[in-house]
Amino acid sequence: MPYENLTRKALEKLRDDIREAIATKGMDNSGQAWESLSVEENTLFGADYIYYLDKGRGPGKFPPPKNIVEWVRAKLGLEGSEAKQVAYVIGKKISEKGTEIYRNNAKGINLDALIAAMLSDLEDAVGDEAKVEVLKWL
């Protein structure tokens, strides 16, 4: 069915737009967020922390240490206990103040706008496809 192809193409473009936003904002030092984005069976999948690249993380509790350790390794080149110590300090600051994206949402990847643009494009594409189908019937 042609509409399924339209959905897949729209999701693939959304995936690419999210990847571009992540790269443009310099948020993918480890490469994991970028690589985690995939389209399978008309569903877009990605790492759970992509949400935080959009909305940030508010204060209140420690973020998952594993993600921060990965970031410290990629961004700062630290390994072993040194990477874990720096990750702990960063996690503590996040738990107390939240992330910079949380405090200044303009720094996030703006998923809402990317999704709205994808839906608008998909709506236009479905309308165009419907017109073609109607003309075939006439």
Please tell me about this protein's structure.
- By secondary structure, the chain is mainly alpha-helical.
- It has one domain (2-137).
- It is 69% helix and 4% strand.
- The chain is built from seven helices and two strands, in the order H-H-E-E-H-H-H-H-H.
- The protein has helices at residues 2-24, 32-36, 50-55, 65-76, 80-97, 100-103, 111-137, and strands at residues 38-40, 43-45.
- The protein has a two-stranded antiparallel ribbon.
- Helix 1 packs antiparallel against helix 7 and helix 4 crosses helix 5 (80-97).
- The longest helix has 27 residues, at 111-137.
- The protein starts with a helix and ends with a helix.
Protein topology:
Layout: H1 2-24, H2 32-36, E1 38-40, E2 43-45, H3 50-55, H4 65-76, H5 80-97, H6 100-103, H7 111-137
Antiparallel strand pairs: 1-2
Helix pairs in contact: 1-7, 4-5
Shape: elongated
Order of helices and strands: HHEEHHHHH
Mean pLDDT: 87
The fraction of residues assigned to DSSP E strands is under 5%
* Whole-number tally of structural domains: 1
- DSSP helix fraction: 55-70%
